[in-house]
């Protein structure tokens, strides 16, 4: 039976990532830990990219504390292409060190003999130190070396790989690495610790502010609840009002000066009688308009029509307009809207329904 092995062709992150930075440490080519979540790098969305990285992806998935790293594999014929790479690396290290494996594992970086590379010597010569005040202590000062971008470009050349450029930028002090997740956690812990060390007076002030905010919230809610319970009373005009003098209505016609304020038309009929007519349509309560050219009231809502006397003659209005009680107080007309007269009930013939002058 032919030998087969599994290779990762698809990897994704399920909901629930705690941004622990472990996956990027195990497989930085695939995982990118950001501010609030972790994403799969664009190149790692292709099977050709993930297949050679199968061991590191599996290690990252097994080391995820919340088990949100998922992957999909396919079975491939032949031995694992990465099998034996660890042993080869260990053997190469032992051979280069000239001793045992243990000596090679503990041996530090090799410093070449001879004078330094002129390019890097120029880079260091162009670096400048500058001071910065620490954010943790008020008087501590730190020194950092910073080389200009031109010196970095001259030292690396235009064809340097991106990782070499990034390393040179960081090593020369031209750029600063982004803050790690662990550093952000430690900073937040420090803020919480400083809050826990507040004085008694500060604690009392915080409690007072919290109670004040709570009382203000309750007061606002109580006012809104009271406003909801108390009925909204609109201010209505008085039921009785003076409608001017008799001399203000010399000719037969419709007088509309009290239509808006009192919802009343003062009408002088051809026989000389004066009546106070309601402006409310008897169909659904709209306000008709007086069309002097047609000599009629016309409701704009549903088309009801009324003569100048208030009697209905067209449209859905079921009955004539209502009249209010009208009387004299000396030379002044007085309209009492609390007393109404309806024509279909024979009330227009009662005293007060019209004023004969």
Brief sketch in words of this structure:
It contains eleven helices and 16 strands. The protein is elongated and about 130 Å long.
Structural class: alpha+beta
Number of strands: 16
Shape: elongated
| CATH topology group of the domain at 240-349 | Rieske Iron-sulfur Protein
Which CATH architecture of the domain at 240-349 would you pick?
Answer: 3-layer Sandwich
- From the alpha carbons, calculate the radius of gyration and give it in angstroms: 47 Å
- Report the end-to-end length measured between terminal Cα atoms: 125 Å
Low-confidence stretches are 98-109, 129-145
Run of helices and strands: EHEEHHEHHHEEHHHHEEHEEEEEEEE
As laid out across the biggest beta sheet, the strand order is: 7-16-15-10-9-8
Structural description of this entry:
With 357 residues, the protein is of the alpha+beta class. Among the domains are: 4-82, Alpha-Beta Plaits; 123-176, no CATH class; 240-349, Rieske Iron-sulfur Protein (3-layer Sandwich), CATH 2.102.10. The protein has eleven helices and 16 strands. It has helices at residues 22-26, 47-50, 54-63, 85-97, 101-106, 118-125, 149-156, 162-172, 181-196, 200-229, 259-262, and strands spanning 4-13, 31-33, 38-40, 69-77, 128-133, 141-146, 240-245, 253-255, 264-268, 274-278, 289-291, 296-298, 305-306, 312-314, 323-329, 332-341. The strands form five sheets. The chain has a six-stranded antiparallel beta sheet. The protein has a four-stranded antiparallel beta sheet with strand order 11-12-13-14, with no helix packed on it. The termini are far apart. Residues 98-109 and 129-145 have low confidence and may be disordered.
